[in-house]
Every structure is written in structure tokens, then in C-alpha cells.
Amino acid sequence: MSNYTSEEALSNRTNNKFSTWHKEINGKKDEHCASKRVLEDYLQVSINPSFKFNAEDPIFTMGSCFARRLENILHKKGNNVPMYRDMLKNKDIFENSTSFNKYNTYSMLYELLWVLEEEKYEQEYSIIEVGKDKFMDLQSVPGDFNLNSYENILKRKEKVFSLTRNVIDAKVITLTLGLNEVWFDKKTQRYLNITPDIKFAKKDSNRFELRILSADGASFIIETFLSNYHI
Q1: 33, 200, 205, 221: which could join 23 in a potential S-S bond, CB 3.0 to 4.6 Å?
Q2: pTM (2 decimals)?
Q3: Shortest CA distance to 190 belongs to which of 114, 124, 135, 142?
Q4: d(CA 80, CA 214)
Q5: What span, in angstroms and rounded, lies between the C-alpha atoms of 34 and 161?
Q6: Adjacent-strand bridge partners of 127
């Protein structure tokens, strides 16, 4: 909870041209009032950022499809988005940037721990065999390169890790939170980025379960990691 004195509140109202719900000037709605802005095609919001960065500063994004939209727009505007730029150089491996989607904070946390070598990645954490020479990466993206050979899965994962390491040099880090309904693998004690193969899951009905994460708990995971690491 944030508390403001009456003096502070009135000062905020005076200094914020967007603070009024409805206001008319010469019989027409003030363009800044909320009752007009909410009816526009694009909502204009009032933002007072606490930091600034320039086009050369490296930007790192991680999360669901919203993160992909952000990096795409930033790249097109001429900002420095190394992970997106490097993805474009590897079109033979990545059809598009959705290959980097992370749908929950645990998947984001695991990826950061692995690429920054805070924890050693073990194949059993995410790769399962679902058929003859067919493997699935449970920390990957639905339908993206799944199913494939074991060698190809590892090759792709190594490339994902190498591109994700751009977080180390980032001046700006943007994380977008996605799902709070998350599959959990009781064998590896890991939350998954995707739904496990249904046939595989049915063979061992006690291995996987669905969990509902709290928003506070999920965001705390990432906040704690970032605050303890030099980035």
C-alpha cells in the first residue's frame, strides 16, 4: 500500500494533465481527460519513467508472446536487441522468435540459472522420450521443434542458451509474466514450460500434476534472483 498526504495528492493532481476523468473546454472534451482517451483507438497513458536508456543500450526481453512483440518493435525502431538480432541470423534453427517463449516464472528462472551457470543443466530436467528417436523438450515451446531427435533437441537448446546469455550485458531487462496454471514434474521436481505429451503422461499417471501459482509467489522468484545476481 502507498500512502500520500493531502498536499502530495493535490500536487500530483495539479501536475498530472491526465488526472481528470471528465473535463470540457469550450464545450468539447479535454483531449487529456480519461473519458475521452478510453474511447480512442489507442489509449494514451501518463508515464513518468524512473530511468532512461538510449538506442545503443542492450535490451533483453524474456517471457511470453508479449515479450516477443516488444523486442520486435524495439528492433524495428533501431534499438539494440541482441537476442532478437542473433535469432534472425539463425533462421535455419529458429523460424521465428516464439522459440524463446517462456510461459511462467519458473521456466524463466531455470533458463537464467542454466545460462548463467548458477546451476548445471541436466538433460533429464526437461527432455523425455516419447517414441522411437522422438524426444520432447518440456522447457521448450508447444509444437516448436517438438518432436525431434535427441541430437537435434540438444543442438537447438545449446543455441537457445547461447542467445539467452545476452542477458549478462543487458542495460534493460524486461520480463513479461504469463500463465499461472503450470504443469509440474514430480520426478524431476521441475515446473514445465509446456504440457507434457499426453500419451507419455498417461503411461505414468502419477508423474505430472497441474499447479496454480500465485502472482505474488511467481514474481518473487524472479525478483529474488535478479536482486542476488550482478545483472
Answers
A1: 33
A2: 0.77
A3: 124
A4: 33
A5: 44
A6: 137
